[in-house]
Amino acid sequence: xxxxxxxxxxLGCLLSGAVHAQLTLLGAGGNKATASGNLPxxxxxYTHRPAGNVYGVDSWVGLPPGTTLTPWYSISKSGVSVxxxxxxxxxxxxxxxxxxxxIDFTLTAPSGHNGGYIAVSNSQTCxxxxxxxxxxxxxxxxxxxNFTVQLxxxxxxxxxxxxxxxxxxxxxxxxxxxxxxxxxGSVTFLSNFVEDPQGxxxxxxxxxxxxxxxxxxxxxxxxxxxxxxxxxxxxHMNFQQFNGGAVTSDVWSNNTVAVLGxxxxxxxxxxxxxxxxxxxxxxxxQVENNVFVGFYDGHTTCGGPPPGPCxxxxxxxxxxxxxxxxxxxxxxxxxxxxxxxKSSGPADGTQGFFNAYYPNSMNGGCWTSSGNISLIDGxxxxxxx
Length: 385
Fold this sequence. Notes:
Low-confidence stretches: 1-22
Strand content: 35-45%
Number of helices: 0
Largest sheet: 11 strands, parallel
Shape: globular
Number of domains: 2
Structural class: mainly beta
Distance between the termini: 28 Å
């Protein structure tokens, strides 16, 4: 069984007002030669952090330093077409594997188009697509731009993205998911760095009747500054979102998610494992060895309990139980997770969530839970009503 370390770090300031203590982020062009990880100080204030390597904290993830990149508009590869006027890079290989490695999708083309994006459209066939050592994002807010890898083929697509950077600071609203898919197949997302996915969905599965996908998200760093991105100040964060269809497996492993909330004005969540549209089936989801780290943002009014300063996100994990039209099958495992949340005591500015788990969504049914720990005081956290 794959172990899962999902790290949700929702970071704000413990001071009143709108001042935030920003982390030192080195991942986007920082000095990888002298720092231990992208966010090396993320867990320094916690005495109950997990032992072992924390990806993005104790080691680097994302685009390897020194990688030589080729502009997206210069891609010349069999089975791949490029439109410099729209920014669309299409895969229509018909068979076999297409690998795009060392590509910079953030650059403005000579035609003036701001950045490129990848898509497998309805009538196209691209059975296996591998993206590694790539850089995704937008060079500026002007004009049309995109951020996503879009899978909309009626044929199955096995997508793997690894060792890549997704930086959405300059991308427009609605172009913010790292992966947007309505295709059957699989999405494997490994060792990537994601900064400011402005709609909040890192993986957005549209689904639908007869559509199924296997999801494997491991060893990534997701850094989101809600309110610090001027073009989308109040993003609704759901780092994984499903809309109908079926998920044959769902694995979150060794991810670190850092979120600065300013202010909390929405009910965004971490990974969601239920369907927004029914019917939806999820099989054997695994949420193991995850760490969710966060602080209140210093505001005194917010959209829900507990009273006092507001957390940056509402719930760390939202399971499938209690959602009409959603069915959980197989053996679901929730084990070894760490949260900057404590189940008792006053709201003292140390908690980053209203609840570690969405109420009644993971307590019983298909789930087995054990060994989930508070980063703050080391006590056990049990999903409950």
